[in-house]
Write a structure and sequence with these properties.
Layout: E1 8-15, H1 26-31, E2 36-38, E3 41-43, E4 48-53, E5 56-62, H2 65-68, H3 70-82, E6 85-89
Antiparallel strand pairs: 1-5, 1-6, 2-3, 4-5
Amino acid sequence: MKTSNSKHTVLIGQTEDGNKFRPSDWAERMCGALCTFRNRRIYYSPLLRPAIRDGIKCVIIDESLADKEPGIHSQIINFAETNKLKIISE
């Protein structure tokens, strides 16, 4: 899945068969595991953050998450594999 020089893993909100993954707020929910709240605003961690690429919701996982929070990293990867989300390394 990851190459030795990859910096990020991207979970794309589309299943391997091309269907849009539901619920529509899945990325925000997943990234909520490491977010903080200040002044009534959500601040996502640079280790785990939602994004939109080509109109599709994604989650960007920094490679250092596996070292800093191995349990969360494992849960997220297992979730993606169980739900057959597309996973790419960058």
